[in-house]
Write a structure and sequence with these properties.
Elements lengths: L1 H8 L11 E2 L4 E4 L6 E4 L5 E3 L14
Antiparallel strand pairs: 1-2, 2-3, 3-4
Amino acid sequence: MIFGRVLCLFNRHRPQRDKITWDGINYHSDCAHCGKRIYRRQGGGWRAMRVALITAKDPQAQ
């Protein structure tokens, strides 16, 4: 559905209802339209998960 893909561009995702899981903190699923990993916000609505990038240099890693 084209409308669903447009919503994904604005971070308004819809879950695959049969694949929703609970991890003890949030509900997780894959978006039914774009396939991204998403989570359910506390106030409702599903958003894409952010990937934390580790760019800090560890002085002990050398």
